[in-house]
Structures are given as structure tokens and as C-alpha cells.
Specification:
The complex is a heterodimer of chains A (340) and B (299). By secondary structure, chain A is α/β, with parallel strands linked by helices. Chain A has three domains: 65 residues, no CATH class; 148 residues, no CATH class; 102 residues, Orthogonal Bundle (Arc Repressor Mutant, subunit A), CATH 1.10.10. Chain A is 53% helix and 11% strand. Chain A contains 17 helices and nine strands. In chain A, the strands form three sheets. Chain A has a five-stranded mixed sheet with strand order 4-5-8-6-7. In chain A, strands 1-9 form a two-stranded parallel ribbon. A two-stranded antiparallel ribbon of chain A has the order 2-3. In chain A, β4 and β5 form a beta hairpin. Chain A is globular and about 60 Å long. Chain B has nine helices and six strands. The radius of gyration of chain B is 29 Å and the shape is elongated. Chain B has two domains: 130 residues, no CATH class; 149 residues, Alpha-Beta Plaits. The two termini of chain B are 53 Å apart. The longest helix of chain B is centred in the middle third of the chain and has 27 residues. Chain B has a four-stranded antiparallel sheet with strand order 4-5-3-6, sandwiched between helices. Chain B has a two-stranded antiparallel ribbon with strand order 1-2. The chains are: A alpha/beta (340), B alpha+beta (299). Chains A and B meet through α1, α4, α7 and α8 of A and α7 of B.
Chain lengths: 340, 299
């Protein structure tokens, strides 16, 4: 049974989980509150209610308003730090008390619906590090860059505070070069990569945290669980769909099959996906693209094997699709990873 | 801003309504076949643009002498163009000259008044430029200003530094940079909250820009790092300025529990702004490792 999914119109975020901090930051930089809130369903008097909630689409509108009013590239990084040290977010407090990075990140991932419902990850191991690949779990409009910077600044801030340094960690970004990331995050950044990815060396994962405290950790985890009653554990629809398809490969799911698995009608699935500004075929294509890239990075597969694993009827179709995704044919892509 | 000018808005509306009533009283409406579309388009556009000027003046300028001149000049223009447009729709009797005077006289007077206002604006701008010294060099682009500290950001620094490097190379003078970095700013933010950090940054930038000479410019290079460009300065002078800044900062710091600053200076010998700033990053790292104010000679 797949977990529940939330609709685009559900109020899934707490105002205290970032919204109030963002507004305070923006106001100190000269933005006006009523302009920041315009177009969102947030009212000024709700801002300080402890359990006030907002839609994810409101959050995106809020980010858009901020960027329109301010030219302040540091906003995402400051907000990341503010969240990490916020007294109101038990999830972030619990991260500091974790034993090590591995426990902290799995805690963050388990409770991510409370703070970052917009990303899901795939882990894979490279030679000296574990790569965390971040994928958008829902339609992010054009705020993907901001949200990713926010998440990275939170994780790297945690590592810096607890382990003292972030040297050795590298960041791969999909989008084209911009000067700021390197300055603000303090790690090596490479641009125009195939996916948004954070590579953390193996030595970081088991190193004990400075503030590690098992009692505090379980206390904070308990309050996270209590919060689950308000913000139930649920995932975004595009994420669930991608996971289902990924598991089903090489078989390809049809829209009707997926709708039946989720207990939706086919037309309402279609409508909900279009609220995320995506559609079924695009998601399916994305899943196959990522699967192809990972298979190619992991081992030596022939085109025929890849085609059959990804559910293509023959290797010509696969080659054509691959050319469309990456601009190169599979054999020259393989050369990038397996020079021998 | 427009709230300061309520009476002005009221006055212009009354004036335009008076003009309209006068025109209707003295003339008779033309038949629609007599309308000249091209004339109406041309005169309508002129009127709209003049109204746009009036709106911009009202919404962007605080009350004051220069604003009054600019405003009354544009108002006369608007009035004149308005009557000009009206006579496309209304025919006046030949013997009454009042309307044609009202139509043609205000425009040149308005132009003169507006010009006088623009001269005043020019003087005012020079005064503002003097006020901005230490925060701005040859270039002005309000989109590059950091909204928190009101200093220019890294993009501006790149542009200014590149130009200064080229000028100094051609004139064989020395250009210096001062790099100021806040010690453990992340820790300060963590202990006291981001709000306290923001307050500290804006106070610090006030202090820094007031302590520099008129020819210098200070920019916010990164979250907790400032770079001052010192044109035509010898390393010795730059070192004295660094020490002076350090003393000033100690006063700010001792008042409250604020973080210390590391100040490093360097002479620019690189040919591009990018390599110079990379060198500046290295210089500040070395100064931090030594944890004392040191002069970093060119490597």
C-alpha cells in the first residue's frame, strides 16, 4: 500500500516552519508585508498562531513575491540557517542531538513532509562518497533553485556546526553557473550536471556529532511524532507516481493502472498532475531517464540489456530516447564514466 | 509618496475640470465625421505621456522646492495638451480668442518652469552624489544594491574593480584593497538569532562607509565579508587605514557582545578583477589563520 498523497490544495506546511522567518528576513531588507502576502491565502493575523498552516502553492507565491521585491541572493542561505536553529521546529532541533550524520539525515528524511515535502532523494554509493540525489517531488514552478539552496544550506550548516568542517563535500547542480553558491555554501560546486546531487565522503557519515544526546534526541523525536497528528505523513502525487513506475520497470504502467493503484479516477489523476504543472508521460520519461543514467554509471550494460530493463521494445528506440535526454548516444556517455 | 501631494492632485483635477467646462461653454461639439483620427492619436499620446510624467513626479519625489517646479511645469504642459486634444472634438467661434490663448500659452511657460526644475534636480543630484561618496564610484545601478546594508554587492564590486585596475595600470599608480571579514558570524547568528545578525551588519556598514575617504568605495562582497577599493593608495596608507578601521570597529564591538573583524589589505597587481578577488580571499584566509592584523604582501 503506497502512503497517502496530498492534493495541491491541502494545507501541508506550518507557518512557523519557515514562513514567519522568511517574512521577517524580507521585511528587515525593506520589503513590505502586504506586498509579500499579496496573492497568497495568508492573513497577517494568522502569522503568529502556533499551528497556522498554509498551502504549498502559497509558499511558492510567497517566494516569488520575495524575489520580485528584493534582490538579495543570500536569502535562501540565511533562511536555511534560521530554520536550522529555530526554536519552533522540533525536527531541526532533533537533528542537532543525533548521534551522527547518518542518523540526522534519516531523521530529516523520515519527517521531511513537515519541512521539505518538495524533495525526495535517491542514494547511491560512489568510490569514496555517498551521493544524495535530490528530485523535485511536486511542481515547484521556478522556485526549484531557491528550495534546493535552502535545503543544502540547512544540511551543510548542520554539518559545519556539528562536525566542524565541510571540506571534501561537493555539490552538483543541474542549472547553469552562478557565482553565489560557492561563496555562500563554502563547498565545491559543479554546474550543468545531470542531477542535483550532494556528495558526502564516507568519513563524515559515522563521525559522532558534537551535541549528540540520545535522551534529547528521543524527546524531540516524540514531539515530531506529535506534530504528525497535525501534518500527517503524506507524499506528493508526482513523487508517488515516480516511485511506483520505478519499481515496476521494465514494465510500463499506464495512466489507468496508476489511477487504480492510487484509488483515483483517471481524469482526476490527470487533473491533479496538471495542478503540479506536469503530466503522466513527462514523469514516466523522467523516471526512465534517471534509471538509464544510473545503470550506465553503475556498470557495463549493452544497449540491448538497457533497452529491455527500461521497457523499450528495441534498442533503436532506447538510443533515440537517450539522445533526446542527453544529446549524446549511450556509448559515448558510457565513455565518460568508464574510461577503460 | 503620493500621499504628501494630495492637494496637488486635487488642484490638477480641478484645473482640468475647469478647462473642460470652459471649453464646453464656449464651443459646440463637432460632428463625428469631422474628427481627424491621426490628430487625435498624436495629441492623445502627447497628453498621456505628459500625464505619465506628472504621475512619476508625484509618486517618486518627496515634497520640496525642486518637486514644486517640476510639478507645476508638467501641470501646465498637461493643461495645454488637454485643451489641444479637446479642440479636436469641440469647435470654437472665430471671434473668441480665449481658448486658443489658453491652449498655446501654458505649454512654453510650462516648458520653462520644467527646465528650471530640472536644473534644480541636477544640483540636488550633485548634493546626493556627495552624500553617497564612499558607497559608490563611477557606476550607478540601483538593482545591485544590497537591500539590508544599502551597500553595493559583489557584481558592482567586480565592475568597479575591473575599471579601476585598467585605469591604474595605464597610469602606473597603485591600487589597494582592504578585505574585512567578520569572525564566526555564523556562530553569532546562532547564539543571538538572525535578526541580531542583520542589525549588526547594517550598523557595521554604516560605520565602515563613514570611515572611508571620498574616493574609496566599500561593497558587501559576501554574507559576512566586505571589500573596500582604495584607488591611488600606497600599501603604507592602506595599512594605516586598516588600523584606523580596526580601532573604530573595536568601539562598536565593545559596546555590545558583537563579533570581531579581521582586516587584511593587499596591493592589486592582477590584471583582472576576478583573480584580484581570489587573491583577496586567500589574503583574508591567511590573516584569519594568523588571527592578527597582518599586511599580506603580494605573493
Amino acid at each position: 500500500m503506497s502512503p497517502r498523497h496530498f492534493g495541491y490544495q491541502d494545507k501541508i506546511l506550518l507557518l512557523q516552519h519557515g514562513c514567519t522567518d522568511l517574512l521577517a528576513l524580507a521585511q528587515r531588507r525593506g520589503a513590505e508585508l502586504h506586498k509579500l502576502l499579496s496573492g497568497t491565502g495568508i492573513f497577517e493575523q494568522d502569522l503568529h498562531k502556533p499551528l497556522g498552516r498554509l498551502h504549498f502553492s502559497d509558499w511558492l507565491t510567497l517566494l516569488k513575491n520575495c524575489q520580485q521585491q528584493l534582490n538579495s541572493p543570500e536569502l535562501a542561505y540565511l533562511l536555511g540557517n534560521a530554520l536550522l536553529n529555530s526554536r519552533y521546529i522540533s525536527l531541526c532541533q532533533s537533528l542537532h542531538y543525533a548521534q551522527n550524520l547518518s542518523q540526522a539525515l534519516s531523521q530529516l528524511y523520515y519527517f521531511r513532509h513537515q519541512l521539505f515535502p518538495c524533495f525526495y532523494v535517491r542514494l547511491y554509493r560512489q568510490q569514496h562518497c555517498i551521493a544524495i540525489e535530490f528530485k523535485p517531488a511536486l511542481g515547484l514552478a521556478n522556485q526549484h533553485g531557491f528550495m534546493f539552496s535552502l535545503l543544502c544550506s540547512l544540511i551543510l550548516g548542520l554539518i559545519k556546526q556539528q562536525l566542524g568542517s565541510v571540506s571534501g563535500i561537493s555539490l552538483q547542480l543541474q542549472h547553469a553557473e552562478s557565482a553565489q553558491q560557492q561563496q555562500f555554501l563554502g563547498v565545491a560546486v559543479s554546474f550543468n550536471q545531470a542531477a542535483d546531487c550532494l556528495c558526502i565522503p564516507l568519513s563524515f557519515w559515522r563521525q559522532p556529532f558534537v551535541d549528540a544526546n540520545a535522551v534529547q534526541f528521543s524527546a524531540k523525536t516524540r514531539s515530531c511524532r506529535q506534530l504528525n497528528r497535525v501534518l500527517c505523513k503524506q507524499r506528493a502525487l508526482p513523487e508517488i507516481l515516480c516511485r511506483l513506475q520505478r519499481r515496476a520497470l521494465p514494465q510500463l504502467l499506464s495512466q489507468d493502472q496508476v489511477a487504480a493503484m492510487l484509488g483515483l479516477s483517471s481524469s482526476s489523476l490527470k487533473r491533479q498532475l496538471s495542478q503540479h504543472r506536469t503530466h503522466f508521460a513527462a514523469l514516466l520519461d523522467g523516471v526512465r531517464r534517471d534509471a538509464a543514467r544510473q545503470l550506465l554509471q553503475q556498470g557495463h550494460y549493452s544497449n540491448r540489456q538497457l533497452a529491455s530493463r527500461l521497457g523499450y521494445s528495441d534498442e533503436h528506440n532506447f538510443r533515440r530516447a537517450f539522445k533526446r535526454w542527453t544529446g549524446v548516444i549511450p556509448s559515448s556517455f558510457k565513455g565518460l564514466f568508464n574510461p577503460h | 509618496m503620493w500621499r504628501q501631494h494630495r492637494y496637488k492632485i486635487l488642484l490638477s483635477l480641478i484645473l482640468l475640470v475647469c478647462g473642460l467646462l470652459l471649453a464646453i461653454n464656449t464651443g459646440a461639439a463637432k460632428h463625428s465625421s469631422e474628427f481627424d483620427a491621426l490628430d487625435i492619436l498624436g495629441e492623445g499620446t502627447t497628453l498621456l505621456v505628459a500625464c505619465g510624467w506628472l504621475g512619476l513626479i508625484i509618486s517618486s519625489r518627496p515634497a520640496g522646492r525642486v518637486t514644486e517646479w517640476l510639478y507645476y511645469g508638467s501641470l501646465l504642459l498637461v493643461f495645454s495638451y488637454f485643451l489641444d486634444l479637446l479642440d479636436e472634438f469641440i469647435r470654437y467661434q472665430e471671434q473668441v480668442r480665449l481658448m486658443s490663448w489658453l491652449e498655446s500659452l501654458p505649454a512654453p511657460v510650462g516648458m520653462l518652469v520644467l527646465t528650471y526644475g530640472l536644473v534644480g534636480w541636477h544640483r540636488e543630484q550633485r548634493a546626493i552624489n556627495r552624500q553617497l561618496r564612499g558607497r559608490e564610484l563611477f557606476l550607478r545601478d540601483h538593482q545591485l544594491i544590497d537591500p539590508l546594508t544599502q551597500l553595493y554587492g559583489a557584481d558592482y564590486l567586480h565592475a568597479v574593480l575591473q575599471r579601476e585596475i585598467e585605469l591604474h595600470l595605464s597610469q602606473h599608480r597603485t591600487l589597494c584593497l582592504l578585505v574585512l571579514d567578520i569572525d564566526d558570524f555564523a556562530g553569532f547568528n546562532r547564539r543571538h538569532g538572525i535578526a541580531a545578525g542583520d542589525t549588526y551588519l547594517s550598523r557595521l556598514s554604516e560605520l565602515l562607509s563613514s570611515q572611508l575617504r571620498h574616493s574609496d568605495v566599500i561593497c558587501r562582497y559576501a554574507g559576512d565579508r566586505f571589500v573596500a577599493v582604495l584607488p591611488n593608495t600606497t600599501p603604507g596608507q592602506a595599512q594605516i587605514m586598516a588600523q584606523h578601521l580596526r580601532q573604530q570597529i573595536t568601539q562598536l564591538v565593545s559596546a555590545e557582545e558583537a563579533p570581531q573583524l579581521t582586516v587584511a589589505g593587499m596591493t592589486v597587481q592582477q590584471r583582472s578583477a576576478q583573480t584580484a578577488l581570489q587573491q583577496a580571499d586567500i589574503a583574508i584566509k591567511q590573516a584569519k589563520a594568523g588571527n592578527v592584523l597582518k599586511w599580506q604582501p603580494e605573493l
